[in-house]
Write a structure and sequence with these properties.
- The protein is 92% helix and 0% strand.
- The protein is mostly helical.
- It has one domain.
- The protein starts with a helix and ends in a 5-residue tail after the last helix.
- The model has no long low-confidence stretch (mean pLDDT 87).
Length: 83
């Protein structure tokens, strides 16, 4: 009789553990989905910042060349590209 009771208790514990494992797996799945969302969001933000940075660098280069034409001519003369 004691063995039957112990078996029932063991099976009940096994059942509870299985439920806990199932809940943990569901939590892991939810966390994976959240991680994917955050990853996509960060990639989009990085891409947007990369575009902005590229445009700002191009504007800066244009302004340096435009505002320093004499310096550019001097550099070209030093490199013997222009007479």
């Amino acid at each position: 009789m004691a063995e039957v009771k112990e078996d029932k208790e063991l099976w009940q514990e096994v059942s509870e553990l299985r439920k806990e494992v199932k809940e943990i797996r569901e939590d892991i799945h939810r966390l994976d989905l959240k991680i994917e969302q955050v990853d996509k969001s960060l990639r989009d933000e990085l891409h947007r910042l990369d575009k902005k940075f590229t445009v700002l660098i191009l504007i800066a280069i244009f302004l340096i060349v435009f505002l320093n034409q004499n310096a550019l001519m001097f550099i070209l003369k030093l490199m013997r590209i222009m007479p």
